[in-house]
Design goal:
The N and C termini lie far apart (53 Å). This protein folds into three domains: 5-131, Orthogonal Bundle (Butyryl-Coa Dehydrogenase, subunit A, domain 1); 133-250, Butyryl-CoA Dehydrogenase, subunit A, domain 2, CATH 2.40.110; 254-401, Butyryl-CoA Dehydrogenase, subunit A, domain 3 (Up-down Bundle). It contains eleven helices and eleven strands. The chain is α+β, with helices and mostly antiparallel strands. The model is unreliable at 4-13 (pLDDT under 50). The radius of gyration is 22 Å and the shape is globular. α4 (78-91) packs antiparallel against α5 and α8 (300-328) runs antiparallel to α9 (334-359). The longest helix has 37 residues, at 252-288. The chain has a four-stranded antiparallel β-sheet with strand order 4-5-9-8, covered by helices on one side. A three-stranded mixed β-sheet has the order 3-6-7. β1 (5-7) and β2 form a beta hairpin.
Length: 410
């Protein structure tokens, strides 16, 4: 697949040709219908990594989805990327997670890395030969990202890293980790003192250098890909592995939060995909299942529930794609991405439960996929900033805008 660019005359950004985007989505839809959906249970319930599915995503070029074409990627715009993630998540949300953490790492390198860092890593990341992951959360630092305790201390031309990181998606199979660590006051150029390091590691469970995979975290949902705890004990990193070089010292948290805006659009799109799958399953089942002499879809209680589900789903799509459109236009996106992530993730959870209710007892059985939707949905409410954090982001943005308008009118 190739994301042939189309110039946006008003903003000067590269937009993916709509015909190319539609063809890409159609190809993915066929793959999801034929290869993913029928085989999810083989991997999801036993929590086994779907090697062949991931390799097919690499063949599609999806590990380079948002990496610019001149750096080896597809160069998709945010709108097309959101559609891709929604389509994949309609089949199995975990597959989107394999790409998301990788592309957040790639986004950081693309946007803030030195020329040497971009040329060294991005071409192999685009093919999936080099897998990336993003490592911010810690055992005692989740929503309060500024409270992280992982430390990096300068020792000549190297940094020595010590700390423990949690909830690292792709951590085992990654060959490069975008890791956030705190540097001493005397070595920082930014107020937070948090710096992003590009950590090389050997893919696999054994770890390398001072890195170890402390444990694999067993999860309610979001199964089939590894989520791990990683420990760093006196792990040495060359100074040229600081993201952005000297300028990056102390700027890691600010840059990471900027990259997470892509992650929030991704999670919103995942919510759309899971909500779509839940609605499709509920609609199909309601037309087939009979009670009191007619399909349950003809009973007003179920018909009204389907109407509410469809309306929420459409609203989630509109919010998500509007956030993607704003990102493509170069507009401020924190408010739109926060709204999209909040609403789409909550909608996925609500629709998954509604689908389970429509299925009745069958919805509680692993013979039907709706129980998986129900288990997968909470991850999107938590990941890339909880719903409560999104409300904080949204309210702060609204109040800041209101204050700016009042000042201009004064």
């Amino acid at each position: 697949m190739r994301g042939r660019p189309q110039q946006n005359a008003t903003e000067g950004t590269q937009m993916t040709d709509i015909e190319v985007a539609d063809e890409m989505i159609s190809t993915l839809a066929r793959w999801v219908n034929d290869e993913v959906s029928p085989n999810v249970a083989t991997f999801e319930l036993p929590d086994e990594y779907p090697v062949d599915m991931v390799e097919q995503m690499a063949a599609f070029g999806l590990f380079g989805a948002t990496i610019p074409e001149d750096l080896g990627g597809l160069g998709l715009d945010n709108m097309t990327y959101a559609r891709v993630i929604a389509e994949i998540s309609r089949g199995w949300m975990s597959l989107a997670g394999v790409i998301n953490s990788h592309l957040i790492c790639a986004k950081l390198i693309t946007r803030f890395g030195t020329e040497a860092q971009r040329s060294t890593h991005l071409a192999s990341m685009a093919t999936g030969d080099l897998r990336g992951c993003f490592s911010l959360s810690e055992p005692d630092s989740g929503s309060d990202a500024g409270a992280l305790r992982c430390k990096a201390e300068r020792d000549g031309d190297e940094w020595v890293i010590n700390g423990t990181k949690m909830w690292v998606t792709n951590g085992e199979r990654a060959g490069i980790v975008a890791l956030l660590a705190r540097v001493p006051d005397g070595d920082r150029s930014g107020s937070a003192g948090v710096t992003c390091f590009l950590i090389d590691k050997e893919p696999g469970p054994a770890g390398s250098g001072g890195i170890s995979i402390s444990r694999k975290i067993d999860k309610l949902g979001y199964r089939g890909l590894e989520t791990v705890e990683m420990s760093y004990v006196d792990h040495r990193v060359p100074h040229d592995r600081v993201l952005g070089g000297d300028e990056g010292v102390g700027n890691g948290l600010r840059w990471a939060l900027a990259a997470l805006e892509l992650g929030r659009i991704n999670v919103a799109a995942r919510g759309v995909g899971v909500a779509q799958a839940a609605f499709d399953a509920a609609l199909a089942y309601a037309q087939q299942r009979e009670a009191f002499g007619k399909p349950i879809s003809q009973h007003q209680a179920i018909a009204f529930k389907l109407a509410e589900m469809a309306t929420k789903l459409e609203a989630a799509k509109l919010l998500t794609y509007e956030a993607a459109r704003k990102a493509d236009a170069g507009e401020r996106v924190d408010l739109a991405a926060g709204m999209a992530k909040l609403f789409a993730s909550e909608t996925a959870s609500e629709l998954a439960l509604d689908a389970m209710r429509i299925h009745g007892g069958n919805g509680f059985s692993t013979e039907y996929p709706v129980e998986r939707f129900y288990r997968d949905a909470p991850l999107m409410i938590i990941g890339e900033g909880t719903s409560e954090i999104q409300k904080l982001v949204i309210s702060r943005a609204l109040l800041a805008d209101a204050a700016a308008r009042s000042k201009n009118e004064a």
